[in-house]
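Notebook p. 47: complex prediction with adenosine-5'-triphosphate.
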Amino acid sequence: MLEIQQLTGGYGTVPVLKNVSFTVPDGTITGLIGLNGAGKSTTIKHIIGLLHPLKGTITVAGHTLQADAQAYRQALAYVPETPVLYPELTLKEHLELTIMAYDLDEKAAWARAHDMLRRFRLDNKLDWFPDNFSKGMKQKVMIVAAFMTDAQLFIIDEPFTGLDPLAVHDLLALVQAKKAAGASVLMSTHILATAQQYADQFVLLKDGQVRADGTLAQLKQEFGLADASLDDIYLAMTAEGSR
Ligand SMILES: Nc1ncnc2c1ncn2[C@@H]1O[C@H](COP(=O)(O)OP(=O)(O)OP(=O)(O)O)[C@@H](O)[C@H]1O
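Predicted complex, structure tokens below:
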């Protein structure tokens, strides 16, 4: 479970995020939605500990970064929008690094990794350097590294751009399997039709604040749009003036 309470923060002393609160319960997928510049990446940077809040608290599976940094970091796995890889490490070495960082059982972790590598057709590339892979292949490496962990929270930033349709399908299957196993998933995306289909609830960010959050049914009620799709609700939100 991810719990964000009254988070105010950003890059300097002028906050980008203002009193952001939401939760991602165990066994659920939450879509983080908003216009360019609304604060989605900034929220994610706070959760993964890259930025420090000016105010507020972030709890992952009962841990805070301040109380127990290692437990907090091991409780979450992150797939960034832009793959981050070490030029001097092979694919195999990247995955070994994940096993060490997350203190994973080697046999079980490699079994999970091999299964995903086969799906992503990377199983014959373990001794290659992913730094030379195509963008989509690099993204797949980041996905395998994240999904081989036992994390309680999975954060996926813009998962659908750059992946081929088969890979998107495979990624969604991995996300659903983690959800079924009781993990919580936060997915930032502009692909609203897919978000509507797969997410259980949504957080709509606008100008660094939560404009609305909840299930599609709750959002429809909030915006007074009985038959609306997530797309319709998004357009209604953007048409509103700044609050
Ligand atoms: N490194 C940075 N330093 C200062 N301000 C930043 C930095 N990165 C982002 N911002 C500002 O923070 C605000 C929120 O940006 P953020 O990247 O969180 O938006 P986003 O919702 O992820 O947008 P997008 O959909 O374009 O990825 C913007 O006003 C942006 O200019």
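Notes: The chain has a mean pLDDT of 95. Residues 11, 16, 34, 36-42 surround adenosine-5'-triphosphate (CB under 6 Å).
Next step: compare against the earlier run before touching the bench.
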